[in-house]
Amino acid sequence: MARNARRLIGRSRELDRLAAVLDAAAAGLAGVALVGGDAGIGKTRLVTELCDRARRQGFVILVGQCAELGDALPYLPLTDALRGALADPAGPVVSAVEARPALRRLLPGHDADPAGAPVGTLAQQRLFGSVIDMLAEVAGLSPVLFVVEDVHWADRSTRDLLVFLTRMLQRERVCLVATYRTDDLHRRHPLRQVLAELQRLPLVTGVELRPFDDGEMAEYLSTLDGNDGAVVTRVIERAGGNPFFAEELLAAAEDRGGLPSSLADLLLARLEALSDTAGQVLRVAAVAGRRVDHDLLRDATGLADLPLEEALREIVSRRLLTAGTDGYVFRHALLQEAVYDDLLPGERTRLHATFARLLAERGGSAAELAHHYLASHDLAHALATSVEAGRSAARLGAPAEAHRHLEQALELWERVPEAEALAGASRAAIALLSARTAAAVGDYHRAIHQLRRLYRLADDPVVRAETAERLAYFLADDDGDAGEMLRMAQEAVELAPESPLRAMALATYGRTLWYNLRVDEAKATATRALEVARATGAHDAEASALVSLALQEEAAGTADRAEELLAEAVGRSDDLAIDLRARFNHARVQYERGRLRAAGPTARAGIELSRENGLTWSTYGTDLRFLDYLVRYAGGDWDAAERLAEGFPVRVGTRAEATLSSFALFVEVGRGRPGADERLRWLSKFWSDELVAYISRGMAAEQALWRGDPAIALEHVEAIVEALDPSDAGLIRVVATGLSALADAGRPDGRGDDLLGRARWAAENGPAGPRAELGPEGAAWLARAEAEWHRARGTADPAVWRRAADAWGFGFVYEEARTRRRLAESLLESGDRDAALQEWEAATGTARDLGAGPLLAALGELGRRARFRPAGDSRQAAEPDVLAALTGREREVLAHVAAGLGNREIGERLFISQKTVSVHVSNILAKLGVTNRGQAAAIAHREGMVSGVADGNTGNTV
């Protein structure tokens, strides 16, 4: 039977599950599969079959292999996958990789440690963003299958990358598959937590390979050649359902006439049948790892080409190694482990030394060299290459591996003569870099511990100054002891000479003073930091000080000066993190001042910078994207805002994802999209986070109001009010929503007075005292809250509502339209029908332009009740064109719905699928502000849409 057929025995169900993920990815729904099972159970066979199927379906295949090298090589499977894909110069991956420096540095022949490259967290964000952008670009041409094998051996950064991709992939045509050994996952294995986290996500499909039962094993063995019934029976009894063990037992029985007694004996039994030369070649290959280059193996064995090739032919024929394009791979990792473990200690040390020498001659990676030098007990070279590997990993965006390498160097330091000369840096410099990398992976406890120890031991004032500055900075990041951070920052300023270090120390000291609400001192210190930065040419410290001063000016109510300082900071720093921080705050201040036309281009310039540098998913890259979304939302460009929100994840798993996802609700609720319900279900898991709850529960309250459920809206409002700081200006918006709910419920109780009192207090008071200035949006929300309070009390004065409507005139078109709806109502109650009609028409036009279905439906109901008659209209009553928000296709679908056709019949008439019809119907219901097909049909009949539909002609129905 063919090899492919053997793969499927006993695994058809698992393959079907993987194929379903593959098919979903091809259709535009990204998916992740985690394939687990014991060593030898058939994971690679199953994934190989999936790759064959994907190849037939036109997928781009990326396959990367993790290796047991003690985290020596960060991102090894990604490097492996890219190297394999680039073997096809005409493939779609080539241009996608070449356009991204962060990915190019992973490949052989490229500089992995360029001067000026970002280090730590920023470098990792840059790499992660480049990977997902590359996958999205390639998937735009052909769907992608990305396989990562043996993630139980993955380094920390690779595990973080897998988690990132699993959370970020949404609508890309990408299928990510990872395999792992279940029998290697001991209680404290780092992959356990990752698997537990990922397997809770619906995007993830878990596939656990069980052992074969006796019948499946018998069928499997029957496909192998050269066996008899008695041997097969004994193999089935001994193999425990593991197909790899069964093959090895069968091969050992054929070679030796008996069955080994233990697993190690089983794996090593195959070697006894090899010639002496072939056995030696296999032992040398085991020291290299799972994979070895042909030329490297030749030099390590010292054999001439002919005897080496004869030995390799023998090994490959016995299926111990598999030949590739440029080298050899052990057929199974267990074989490599067994051969390596069987080496004598002296033999192992000697071979590691040989590989270290050969790799050094070939310019091998510092991480590989450090691994072999350490295993060969060459501590001097191990220290030097560990430092080099740490620096390279830090710049590559693998701070966890960088920290491990640097810690290894520090552990060797006292055991190596002239360590400083070998490392090319002092012990203090290495310790500082090690602390930075620990902080980059979020291990502030470790970073702070290292810095405290270094601070106690350091006798050089400059070293103490730099150590104290970093300690204060990380204490602030970690919300540490306020007294210690102030002392350390102050001492850094006192010890640092007039230099860029002093400028940074002053900037950090100013930050800690602001953190402790010592406002005047913070401003004076930031001003001094700016002076020193300019005098010493410290551009990074200069930009940082400018941003700090701008934030202080903003808090003081001098927003014009804040904008000037932020504009000056933009582009000043070579540090991308500082530059993006400046750009975000510049756009944010412009937005909060109501300068939407200026804020949009500022935000988009920052987004473009982050995209060019692979930082789309960095902290400020993400913040800039949601700020751009808010500018478009407020300015009325809802179509563009909704397109941007397509990249905001729905199935969120982290606080950062939940924050970004929350913003999509502004348009989804405003347009009545049914997808808002699913998004809210996911976000509800993060309502313990203040920002996520503020945005998403606030929008859930607005959704409840549109659906006529003020009680639910009040529940959300009260939860947010209790969680927010009383001085938070965001409280004003929530209060306005709560007062609207009280008005809708017709319950003008004491809660209204309490809510309005909270809004007024927040408008007048900030965290550090009386508020200097309330921005235009805050002022508009306060005016709305005052008007809603009057409405709840039944005393709606048109003048109050007009003030509220005019307050939105700075450019927030949706909120202005919503307020003008209430102004029209109050004008009607006061008897001024002409003015009411004018406000109603203005609000209706805006709602129609935005596609704001719920607002348009509410205005339609108001128009019907008021029986408005616009000037020049001979009809008794005019109503808004409630169908204006529908696209042409949606009008066609609605006409058929009104004619009584089902989705299948509509699809046949319009030559579209039933699923597409269902999507159109959902959008129609949302835009019309109705809950079922019957209500939508009634509107269509009223508008005269159904004539001509029965015979299939919809040309005159709209």
From TrEMBL:
<protein>
    <submittedName>
        <fullName>AAA family ATPase</fullName>
    </submittedName>
</protein>
<dbReference type="GO" id="GO:0003677">
    <property type="term" value="F:DNA binding"/>
</dbReference>
<dbReference type="InterPro" id="IPR016032">
    <property type="entry name" value="Sig_transdc_resp-reg_C-effctor"/>
</dbReference>
<dbReference type="GO" id="GO:0004016">
    <property type="term" value="F:adenylate cyclase activity"/>
</dbReference>
<keyword id="KW-0547">Nucleotide-binding</keyword>
<dbReference type="GO" id="GO:0005524">
    <property type="term" value="F:ATP binding"/>
</dbReference>
<feature type="domain" description="HTH luxR-type">
    <location>
        <begin position="879"/>
        <end position="944"/>
    </location>
</feature>
<dbReference type="InterPro" id="IPR000792">
    <property type="entry name" value="Tscrpt_reg_LuxR_C"/>
</dbReference>
<dbReference type="InterPro" id="IPR027417">
    <property type="entry name" value="P-loop_NTPase"/>
</dbReference>
<dbReference type="GO" id="GO:0005737">
    <property type="term" value="C:cytoplasm"/>
</dbReference>
<dbReference type="GO" id="GO:0006355">
    <property type="term" value="P:regulation of DNA-templated transcription"/>
</dbReference>
<dbReference type="InterPro" id="IPR041664">
    <property type="entry name" value="AAA_16"/>
</dbReference>
<dbReference type="InterPro" id="IPR036388">
    <property type="entry name" value="WH-like_DNA-bd_sf"/>
</dbReference>
<keyword id="KW-0067">ATP-binding</keyword>
<dbReference type="Pfam" id="PF13191">
    <property type="entry name" value="AAA_16"/>
</dbReference>
<dbReference type="Pfam" id="PF00196">
    <property type="entry name" value="GerE"/>
</dbReference>
<dbReference type="InterPro" id="IPR011990">
    <property type="entry name" value="TPR-like_helical_dom_sf"/>
</dbReference>
